Amino acid sequence: MAEQMKNQQPEQDLSQQTRIRREKLAELQAAGEDPFQLTRFDWDATSQQIKDHFDEMEGRSVKVAGRLMSKRGMGKVSFCDLQDRDGRIQLYARQDEMDETVYKKFKKFDIGDIVGVDGEVFRTQRGEMSVRAKNITLLCKSLLPLPEKFHGLQDKELRYRQRYVDLMVNPDVKKNFLIRSRFIQYMRRYLDERGYIEVETPVLNTLAGGAAARPFVTHHNTLNIDMYMRIATELPLKRLIVGGMDRVYEIGRIFRNEGMDPKHNPEFTTVELYQAYTDFHGMMDVAEGIISGAANEIFGNYQVEWLGEQVDLTPGWRRLTMVDAVKEYAGIDFTAISDDEEAVAAAGSIGVELADTADKTWGNALYACFDQKVEERLIQPTFITMYPVEVSPLTKRSPVDPRLTERFELFICRSELANAYSELNDPIDQRRRFEKQAELRDRGDDETEMLDEDFLNALEYGMPPTGGMGIGVDRVVMLLTGADTIRDVILFPTMKPLD
After folding, report:
1. Are 265 and 493 in contact (CB under 8 A)?
2. Were both Cys, which of 146, 283, 389, 497 would link to 469 (CB 3.0–4.6 Å)?
């Protein structure tokens, strides 16, 4: 770790500081005062509680605990910043107000040490809310110095690898993860209050289904079979709808063997939810309710800033079909085109190329136009609806136009945050679509759906009309925190090993 931290301080200084700290620890241990032998400290107040209720707590005895982040002062008076779970508060230590031996020991404490403090709430002459220390106990000795005071831990790669240091010295980092926690709490409460049941489904599967993605493969030794880490929770959850659990959801980790960029990490978190007897319109209401409601609860309003854009999350988000979106932003009216060849030519006329593995169809041409020309224009919350059947193998066809499906994706700031369907419950149609996906897989597209016979068997028992949706939790947290990379909202993002 010392080698990794040398960009914060010269290596020789770091080595010297580490040696001095270890010598201090050895002295404590030789005197029978090993801080690592202490087992607990029963604190009864936090920094924020003291600040929020200072008038009623002033003069009251408190016990606080945390990490020393600074020390200043000389001789018989010292000031420190103590960082606990809520933030920071100043400690005031004066030799003639403490046991002299305790004060002398305290003077040897280092920045980064974890302490427990018995003291009294008061305000200094300069008006700062503080704790006047009566006794200070060393609870844990920090053997490595924190990054330099004024510059902190700024190397992004090092921050992600050493999140524990990042959380210590960069207050906004912890704030981001508190927002993440509050969003998940709100989402759970929103769904629970509407009769949804939270469930758990397998992470390891014999088939990878429910999404178009390349899976991670592992091996089960006892069964001597390869297994796939889940790329979605969709198919198990829809089996539960078949079984009569009418409203279900799962918040869980998903694993996709794909590239990494500011919006993608190989493991990420989604919520998938399914509701019997509704459709994709019902899912739009839920998506809008969760995201706008969480923003209003956390911030007290619907305004956020993300990726350099001011975003208004006030309910009443725009709903636009893909055909209308392409007509509005790319200038091609696919309702006036019925021929596949003409559709592909129209796409080519505006510089849109279809993927090599994609059939040259009207639907694929429409989707390619949207993907390449429209998505980048969507800033304010917009539901794009009615996707081509070619890119929606698990979605119910539109009764108005069988080339399209009752599907939407939610876009904010050029980013997809949610994907939802009126779920396909026709087992015969579902089999045909799985078979089409299998053909594409045979032609080299390893991100297509696998044919799941057990899921088809479940559908043959009958699944009621169902609305289903997946929301990218990390993407929503990026929106709420203003983060420009997914690594800033995942505590331990995937990193390439240093060696």
Report:
1. yes
2. 283
pLDDT at 153: 63
Do 441 and 224 contact (CB within 8 A), yes or no?
A: no
Length of the chain: 499
pTM of the model: 0.90
- Report the pLDDT value the prediction gives residue 151, as an integer from 0 to 100: 53
- Tens of pLDDT, residue by residue over 74-90, are 789 999 999 999 999 99
SS3 category, 124: coil
Q: How many CA atoms lie within 13 A of 18 on its CB side?
A: 14
| Residue 74, amino acid | M
Report how far residue 415's alpha carbon sits from residue 344's, in angstroms, rounded to the nearest whole number.
Answer: 25
Round to whole Å and give the CA distance between 91 and 72: 10
CA torsion through residues 437, 273, 405, 473, sign: negative
Task: Take residue 408 and report the two structure tokens written for it.
Answer: 């939407």
Q: Are 290 and 477 a contacting pair, CB within 8 Å?
A: no
User: Alpha-carbon distance 212 to 378, whole Å?
Assistant: 23
Report the SS3 class of residue 451. Answer: coil
Question: Do strands 129-140 and 88-94 pair parallel, antiparallel, or not at all (unpaired)?
Answer: parallel
Question: d(Cα 353, Cα 344) in Å, to the nearest integer?
Answer: 8
Residue closest to 134 by CA, chosen among 163, 175, 94, 80: 94
Which residues of the chain, if any, have pLDDT below 70? 1-14, 149-153, 446-447
- Of 183, 156, 234, 231, the C-alpha closest to 475 is 183
For residues 355 and 351, give the distance between their C-alpha atoms in angstroms, rounded to a whole number: 13
274 vs 293: CA distance, rounded Å: 20
Helices (H), 377-465: 427-442, 453-461
| Interatomic CA distance for residues 441 and 447, integer angstroms | 7
For the stretch 120-151, pLDDT in tens is: 999 999 999 999 999 999 999 999 998 875 45
pLDDT single digits (tens) 269-295 = 999 999 999 999 999 999 999 999 999
Name which of 164, 10, 178 is nearest 86 in CA terms: 178
pLDDT at 152 (0 to 100)? 56
Alpha carbon distance 275, 169 (integer Å): 44
CA gap 196, 402 in Å, rounded: 31
Cβ contact 469:283 at 8 Å: yes
For the beta carbon of residue 398, count every other beta carbon within 10 angstroms: 18
Task: Name residue 305's beta-bridge partners.
Answer: 310
Q: How far is it, in rounded angstroms, from Cα 155 to Cα 297?
A: 33
